[in-house]
Fold DUF262 domain-containing protein.
Amino acid sequence: MDLNAYTRTISTLFSTNVKYVVPRFQREYSWTKDEVSELWQDVINNLKLKDGKIENLEYFIGSLVLIGEDKSPELLIVDGQQRLTTITILLSALVETFRSIGENDLAQGIYSTYIEGKDVRFKPFFKLENENPKPFLQESIQHITKKNNQPQNKEEKTLWESYLFFINKFKIESLKKDINFWNEISGKQNEKQLAILESIRDQILLNLKVIYITVANEDDAYMIFETLNARGKNLSSVDLIKNDIFKILNGTHPDDTAKRTWKKIQLNLSSRAGKVNFETFFRHFWLSKYNFITESKIYKNFKIESNKNSFNHYDFLKDLSEEAETYNKIANPLKTDWLDQNDLVVYNSLNALSLFQITQIRTFILALIKKRNERLIHHADFCKVLNEMEKFHFKYSAICSLKMNIFEGKYSKTARDLRKCTNKAQSTVVINQLLQFYAEKEPAIEVFKQRLEELKFTNQYTRDKKLIQYIFSKIENFYRHTEELTLNKISLEHIDSQSNANGNFGYLGNLLPLDKLLNEQCGDKDFKDKLTIYKQSDLRIVQEFLNNYGFETDWNENNQKKWFDYISDIAYNKAWKLEL
């Protein structure tokens, strides 16, 4: 391998007419406020005041690995993308700040020398080129005349947050806080600001140094890329796997299929309100289809699988894309995903499981939906296992908060067993084995009631509100033999008003589901007056309440206990009874 290494300053890098290109296998820009703040502190900590003048100290910021000859007009960035991008953002923010304070020559000096270059035909180009966030990075950050584009995805938002970070840091108010020798600099505030901004410019351009390494070809670059990140300190398993896939699927004409598909997966996972972490999805996908392993071993396991003759990188990427779409429907269910009336129970179960915030189940549900799409599972089995999963995890997880560590391996194995099924009969056997496992692990009613009694809702304590709404809506649906009432259609009424209540005010024994308008009418009225309003409700659970307490003259602790016992009994033994 031919490799050349030099010490270079940022000025040396960017002052020549070389284009630094972020290649297709690189991950997105991902520096958060923590990393950006660390760079900022490194910059300002190396500014010193001596004899009334600001001096700059040299500072080493690591290596920069590039593909191409040392004198090439275009170099691909293998390692150092995050640092170069952040430095470009900082310089762009410095340009904008100089313009805002009327120092247009200083702004143009940075822009024309270090951000924009000219080719032999005198056509402009950006010295740092990245196609992924195009045109947001180019139009809203790099260009001297910026467009007011709104960031549309996670990478664009991260880029914009870094840019705003520096814009704010360059303001007088921030510099006064961050520069410890501010008061010792002579001159007016705007003069001090200008002196410090010029020193920051010089610190970045002339005193930040890198080890500049060039390699001749892409194969050497991939090898260095993996070696630099082999221990996973800089890149996640998914980043390394992406690197491997792009290395094999390296065709870019007439279309870069690998890059387009990967981008599609990213957009899919971030397309709904509850954005899905790529690494979380990938691990659940891997556990669902390949092996049960820890996050730290996924890349090593991928290398083993991908070296098998039966492994096809294109098919793997296509499969990953399809299951990312399914995963999003599991993690962020929408009614539009399940338009068939027979699938309403599926949506309600997925929605409940999402409310319970259980992620381990997704490994199995990925395989379950895969088999449904392949028509290798009975529709009745499909609906039943999701319904029983909801009922079991309501008791086990949402209420009792019992340990989930035994389920990750169980769901992984069951998912892989289900994927191996070649007919509906085999699928039924696998599902029944899981249901039997639920029966063995179901918590006792005493534990269930003890934990259920801890649920609470007041205006000041709302953590359990959605779960309590879910409980009442599920009981109501049990009475009606339907799945139509959803938790957002009911509000929670405190039977005994807070002004009159004892210590049980916010707990389940003092709560009743009501239509929002009826709840507002109740206000702080006495119990007897509230009963008249309750009678206007068409909810079956309210009618049950009236049948038991409609003739009471007041609402006391004894009644609260009886009402809680009634709710907990119907919950454990009827509405969420496992039917295995």
